[in-house]
Every structure is written in structure tokens, then in C-alpha cells.
Specification:
The complex is a heterodimer.
Chain A: E1 7-10, H1 18-22, H2 24-27, H3 29-56, H4 61-81, E2 100-103, H5 113-117, H6 119-122, H7 124-151, H8 156-176, E3 192-194, H9 203-206, H10 210-218, H11 229-233
Parallel strand pairs in A: 1-3
Antiparallel strand pairs in A: 1-2
Chain B: H1 3-29, H2 44-48, H3 50-84, H4 96-128, H5 136-145, H6 147-168, H7 172-194, E1 197-198, H8 204-217, E2 224-227, E3 238-241, E4 248-252, H9 262-277, H10 280-302, H11 315-328, H12 330-352, H13 355-369, H14 377-383, H15 389-403
Helix pairs in contact in B: 1-10, 3-4, 3-11, 4-5, 4-6, 6-7, 7-10, 8-9, 9-12, 9-13, 12-14, 12-15, 13-15
Classes of the chains: A mainly alpha, B mainly alpha.
Chain lengths: ~230, ~400
């Protein structure tokens, strides 16, 4: 079982540009300003959406799409900042535009009104864990920065650890913003799809031979087989 | 309309616009310093001593070599970047404007790398002469962090330019120039709120004089504040910033450390209030607007060969042209700045009526900054934002001759 409505897909090839790695935090400046501005609107939308969800039992569709785009966007920015991915991300959170992509439900699901009412209290423990994970990620990024500057590649273990932290953080925010009613999962095997693009995770594509699904990543990852298969066996 | 008459009409319009441009520039160029003022020859070695004068000349010469590096090296680096910078497009998953921002930031990041060695050498020179006390590691880290506002500004510039270019194609400059001027005005207005300024403790005589001088110069009482920079530098300085209600006169704590007398400080404050009296910050904004217009126009034309500013491919060339053209007008900007500074000096003399204090202040500047009081012409042209100390002292003497002080 690795199913969670909010799933992180990692299609990164581990290659890193030393120039952008050296200046990585500074290159994030326009994104951090944009997150701040967009986040302010998300805050207002959250209140409206919360009221809607309490009344009709599910979030409003436009708000759902708006929040989903924000979560996808923050995922790309965090991935860039923490060296989980190489390219400079876009500003719109458009699906399919980045090697690290958050699959988020864009259609609102029915949610328990009681859980909705107490959402901010319920999410608090998860956000506390997310905060702790963020500190771990800072430390890992510091180490990874040196590794990437020297070798021009991101160590796979650091990348996967960072990706997992981002996955948990985004699941936490997805729950907080009512995008999903599913609580973030602490297991690194749930809601994580290493080497699989979003399209491959759809039921139809799951029928495709594994080699074909993994082909894009396999070209860049000649070493040991990727870890995502392990969880499905456990 | 035939082709030749269209060309004639175009030339006429261009001529009319150029005429308006020169007229506006001449308005900004005017100052209240008497045009017939004859500056007497000043013997600086008699005022500061031959040894100190020689030392100041030596210090300035070497400082200028580093400054020359700082002026021209970025242009050379950006020229190379204009040719090869487009290769970094592959590092972006963003849209055209986002990619443009990335290319612009990377261009300036490469300039920063190229400037590291000359920057450290300059730091060594300043440390050797006790002007700056910043450590080498702190300088590297500080200048790296100093890229934050630089990146913010360039991203905003790219957003404005590319945003309008996507809407108006090659005519983006028509819309972008008013926005640039508006953004600059906003920045000047908010600057006093961004700098960590503090109240001046002590100096009751100076505070009282500030109010008195403001009244005499006919400006509203503008708050005086202090900026603490003493941990980084020993150089004395003061400036005025802000517009309307945000106007401030700012003194560095290094000028209040006892090396300058109260009467000398009064001249400093009167000089800064002189800037406000003659609306120099507004005039600076106007001057910027006058020059950014042709710069933006030429960039719009010259970036056409790269597909225009709507596509990120043109951004490295834009970056080069933007900096090269601004560097090209540096001598003119400096000449303009010197005129405004001279007007502020003149106003300070009128307001304080204390030429001895002004003279001793400028002599004191030579000892405390180690700057050459009479630098060579090329130095004045490229780096002289203020009249030289010799010229300032000569102006004091000319004022004395005119007013019998």
C-alpha cells in the first residue's frame, strides 16, 4: 500500500548545476516573495473554504483547484530550495512542469464536518512533525550542498530523504487547507512515487509494464533499483 | 504618404522630442550657485600638510584602480554572458518571464564571482588604511547576502520589461519607463523605513541648530537620525533620503564620534537640508527618468535581433546593454551629482554663515577619509559624485569674497 490522495512523484535525474546550487537560496528570492503574496490569498481562501465545507460538507471546487495549484507550486519551490531538483521552477504550479510533482486531488471530496470544524487543531501535531522535518531537511541540504558543489550530483539518499520531508509537509498542508481529508502519513512509503511521473500513477497507466513506466528515470539512474517497489511488498 | 515624407515626419517628431528632452535636462541642470562664481586656487598642502596630501593621493590612486575594476569588469563579464548566457535556459522549468528572471540573476551572480578577487583586494587596501574593519569572511558572506536586494531589483526589472514586452512587443519601453520612475519614487520614499535608523543621543546643540537651519532654509523640520556603521567603517558620512513625510537627514555614527566639532556638524546638517530645500531627490528621480527613456528605447531596438524582450533569449543581452549604457552615462550622472552637491554646499554656507567651520570640515574630510583633495580629471569624471575637497574649499573662499565673511 502506498496510496494517499496527495502523492509526491519524483522524476529527478540527480544531476545538479554547480552555479545554481551555489546561489540556490538567493535564486529562490522571487519565489519566496511570490509564495508570500500567494500565501496571503490562500489564507483568505482557507477561511471561505472552511465555511463552505462546513455548510455543504465538501470544499468548493474553485478553491480546491486554487489550493491544489498552491501546493504543487510550493512543492516545486521547496524542491528547488532544498536541492531535491535542479531546474528553476515556474510560478504557476502547473501540473507536469517539474521533475518533482505533487499529485493533488483537484475534485473536492466529501469531508466529515466535525473534522473540518476542528481542522486547525487536528493538523497541529502533523505541522509540528513537519516543522521538525524541516530542520532535518535544512541539515541534509547543508551536507548535500557540499556534495553537489563537489560532484555536480545530488546523493540519492539525501534527495530521497528531502523528498520525503517535502511529501509529509505538503500532505500536512493539504490536510490543513481541506484539499484532502486524509491525514499525512509518517511512513516514507505512503504517498511517495519515486521514478514515476504523475500520469503513470493513474489506474490505466499502472497496467503498463514496469520497465516502460520507469524508463525516463532509469536512463539517469543506472545503479541500484529504485526503492518505491519495496513498499508495495511490505 | 510617401516613404520620404514619412521619414521626414519621423525625423521632425524625433527632433521635437529631443528638443523637449534637452529643455527638461537643462531645467534640471540649473542650480542656485551663481554662474559667474570664480573659484580661487587653493594650496591644499598648506592646509593639510604635504605628507598627508601625498598619502591621500597614493591611497586614492590605488583605490581608483580597484574602482576601475569594479566599473569595467562587470561590463566585460556581461558582454561574454550576453553571448553565452542563453545556455542556462536549460536550467529552467519556468515560463518565459521566470526563465528571464533566472538568466538575469545568474548573470549578476557570475559578475559577483568575477568581482570577488578585486573586491577582496580593495578590502585589504581599505583595512590597511583603517577605513574599513570588516573581516574577509564576513565581507564574502555579507556581499553574497548583498545579492538579495540586487536580485530583487533585477527580478522586478525583468518582470516589468518582459511583462510589457509580451503585451506591447517592441514598444514595451513606452509603458515600462513610467513604471520604472514610479518604482524608483516608491523606493526613495520607503528607504528611511528600511534602514535601521536611531534617534541621536546627546548633541543638544546640533539638534537645536538642525531646527534653526531648517527654518532658515525654508524647509519643514526634518527629523535627524543616526545610522550605526562604526563596526564596519571609520569613514564619516551623512545623507538625506525620503520624500514628503518620510524625509530624513541621516548622520553616520562615525561623524558623531568626536572628530568633528559641533559647528562642523552644523554645516553637514545644513548641507543635507540644502538637498531637501532644492528638491534634489525629486530632481534625481527626474534625471533618472530622462535617461532611462532613451536607454530603454535603445535596448528595445537592439534586443530585437534576439527576438525582443518577450523571450528569455534576449535577457543576457538586455543585462549587458542595461549595465553598459548606465556605465556610459556615468560621467554625465557624476557631473550632474556634483552640481547638486555644490548647490547644497552653497546653501549650507548661506544658512550657517560660518565659512570657517565649512573650510575646517572639508580639511577634516581629507584626514578622516584619506581621499585625494584634488584627484585627476579621469577620477573626477568616473567617480566624482561630489566636488573635490579642494573645489569645496575654493567655493567657501569664493563665498567669503562675495559675502565678506
Amino acid at each position: 500500500m502506498n496510496e494517499h490522495p496527495v502523492t509526491l512523484h519524483v522524476m529527478d535525474d540527480l544531476r545538479r548545476s554547480r552555479l545554481t546550487v551555489f546561489f540556490r537560496p538567493l535564486l529562490c528570492i522571487p519565489h519566496l516573495i511570490w509564495i508570500y503574496l500567494w500565501g496571503a490569498v490562500v489564507g483568505i481562501v482557507f477561511i471561505l473554504n472552511w465555511l463552505v465545507a462546513l455548510i455543504i460538507g465538501r470544499p468548493a471546487k474553485p478553491f480546491q483547484r486554487f489550493n491544489a495549484a498552491f501546493l504543487r507550486y510550493t512543492t516545486t519551490v521547496l524542491s528547488f530550495l532544498f536541492l531535491i531538483a535542479n531546474p528553476f521552477p515556474g510560478f504557476t504550479g502547473e501540473p507536469g512542469s517539474y521533475p518533482i510533482e505533487l499529485e493533488v486531488p483537484t475534485t473536492p471530496e466529501k469531508q466529515n464536518r466535525l473534522k473540518t470544524f476542528f481542522r486547525l487543531f487536528l493538523v497541529y501535531p502533523a505541522l509540528a512533525v513537519a516543522g521538525a522535518l524541516l530542520y532535518v531537511t535544512y541539515f541534509v541540504t547543508f551536507l548535500a550542498w557540499w556534495a553537489a558543489m563537489i560532484t555536480g550530483r545530488m546523493p540519492r539518499g539525501f534527495r530521497d530523504l528531502g523528498a520525503n520531508a517535502i511529501r509529509y509537509i505538503e500532505q500536512g498542508y493539504a490536510f490543513a487547507l481541506l484539499v484532502t481529508g486524509s491525514y499525512p502519513c509518517a511512513s516514507p512509503y505512503v504517498g511517495m512515487a519515486l521514478g514515476m511521473p504523475v500520469v503513470a500513477a493513474t489506474p490505466a497507466a499502472m497496467e503498463a509494464p514496469p520497465a516502460a513506466v520507469e524508463a525516463p528515470a532509469a536512463a539517469e539512474q543506472p545503479a541500484a533499483p529504485e526503492a518505491p517497489e519495496a513498499p508495495s511488498e511490505t | 504618404m510617401t516613404k520620404s515624407s514619412r521619414r521626414l515626419l519621423g525625423l521632425l517628431i524625433f527632433g521635437a522630442l529631443a528638443g523637449v528632452w534637452f529643455y527638461l535636462a537643462s531645467l534640471l541642470w540649473r542650480t542656485s550657485v551663481p554662474g559667474n562664481l570664480k573659484l580661487p586656487k587653493v594650496d591644499m598642502s598648506a592646509l593639510v600638510g604635504a605628507g598627508e596630501l601625498h598619502q591621500a593621493q597614493h591611497f586614492t590612486l590605488i583605490s581608483d584602480l580597484f574602482a576601475l575594476c569594479g566599473l569595467f569588469l562587470p561590463i566585460i563579464v556581461l558582454a561574454v554572458y550576453a553571448k553565452y548566457g542563453h545556455r542556462f535556459i536549460s536550467e529552467s522549468a519556468a515560463g518565459p518571464i521566470g526563465t528571464g528572471m533566472l538568466l538575469a540573476m545568474l548573470g549578476l551572480a557570475i559578475v559577483w564571482i568575477s568581482m570577488a578577487v578585486p573586491g577582496l583586494a580593495q578590502l585589504w587596501w581599505y583595512r590597511k588604511h583603517g577605513i574599513v574593519s570588516t573581516g574577509y569572511v564576513s565581507w564574502i558572506f555579507g556581499s553574497w547576502l548583498g545579492l538579495i536586494p540586487v536580485f530583487e531589483q533585477i527580478c522586478l526589472t525583468i518582470l516589468i520589461v518582459m511583462g510589457f514586452a509580451r503585451l506591447l512587443r517592441d514598444r514595451w519601453w513606452l509603458a515600462a519607463v513610467p513604471v520604472f520612475v514610479g518604482v524608483l519614487t516608491l523606493f526613495v520614499f520607503i528607504t528611511p523605513y528600511e534602514i535601521p535608523l536611531q534617534q541621536i543621543y546627546g548633541h543638544p546643540q546640533l539638534k537645536a541648530a538642525g531646527g534653526r537651519i531648517a527654518k532658515r532654509e525654508g524647509v519643514a523640520k526634518i527629523p535627524m537620525r543616526v545610522e550605526n556603521v562604526g563596526t564596519m567603517t571609520s569613514a564619516p558620512n551623512a545623507f538625506t533620503t525620503g520624500l514628503g513625510p518620510s524625509r530624513r537627514v541621516v548622520l553616520w555614527d562615525t561623524i558623531l564620534d568626536g572628530r568633528f566639532s559641533e559647528s562642523q556638524l552644523e554645516v553637514v546638517v545644513a548641507h543635507e537640508l540644502g538637498h531637501q530645500k532644492h528638491n534634489h531627490l525629486w530632481k534625481d528621480i527626474g534625471w533618472y527618468g530622462l535617461f532611462v527613456l532613451p536607454i530603454a528605447f535603445f535596448i528595445a531596438r537592439w534586443t530585437r535581433r534576439r527576438g525582443g524582450m518577450a523571450v528569455p533569449l534576449a535577457v543576457p543581452l538586455f543585462l549587458f546593454l542595461w549595465f553598459a549604457l548606465q556605465t556610459a552615462i556615468t560621467p554625465l550622472n557624476n557631473a550632474y551629482s556634483r552640481r547638486l552637491e555644490a548647490e547644497a554646499d552653497w546653501t549650507a554656507l548661506q544658512a550657517t554663515n560660518d565659512p570657517q567651520a565649512a573650510k575646517s570640515l572639508f580639511v577634516n574630510f581629507v584626514s578622516t577619509t584619506s581621499e585625494d583633495p584634488n584627484p585627476p580629471a579621469w577620477d573626477v569624471m568616473l567617480f566624482g559624485t561630489h566636488p573635490s575637497e579642494e573645489q569645496r574649499i575654493a567655493m567657501v573662499e569664493a563665498w567669503q569674497a562675495q559675502n565678506g565673511g
